[in-house]
Design brief:
This protein is α+β, with helices and mostly antiparallel strands. The chain contains 7 helices and 7 strands. It has one domain: Gcn5-related N-acetyltransferase (GNAT) (Aminopeptidase). The mean pLDDT is 95.
Amino acid sequence: MSVEIRAYRPADRDDVARVCLRTGASGGDATGWYSDDTLLPDVAALPHLEYAPDLALVVDDGKHAIGYLIGVADTAAFIEWWRREWVPVIAARHPAPGAPTAHAPQISEALLLEVGRQPELMRIAELDAYPAQLHINLLPTLRGQGFGRRLVDLYRAALAARGVPALHLGIDPSNVGARAFYDRLGFHELPSSTPHHPLFGIATTP
């Protein structure tokens, strides 16, 4: 199997949504966790593709995108776009929480809907110093092979070329593998972190 990192294409949209869902439970499969399997990608992945497709990268196995990195260079501008353009999409697609499932996700469906409708929750105290953000998800078959590091390196270089000084991200505290990965890359915890929502940042240039 030949695997490559390449720029996102519109035809990858469904694959990105699928990877988002299959890694949405602290790196595990979140299929069936919510009443509608489209909810998680609609909040956690698709708005980034709509707003900044030029910054998205995918890992392609020759048939599908099986991993991705998405992000935005200016979170403050993204918040304004989300409020104006994406909140109505969320409201139309997911007007209310659906029936409970057999799962008990860490983020309830009601809270996930709240996140989708309140983009201001993305604003952090250090936004001026760390204006960009990223989200990265890889199917289990890709992990431990260096694709995550390569994606982050490419993304940091793209941001640096745009004059963006630094980026930030949030980590699910139960996802110890993700925490170890970002520690290895040199991310550091930001002062605004809380135990329930740790935030990490890194400069775009070494």
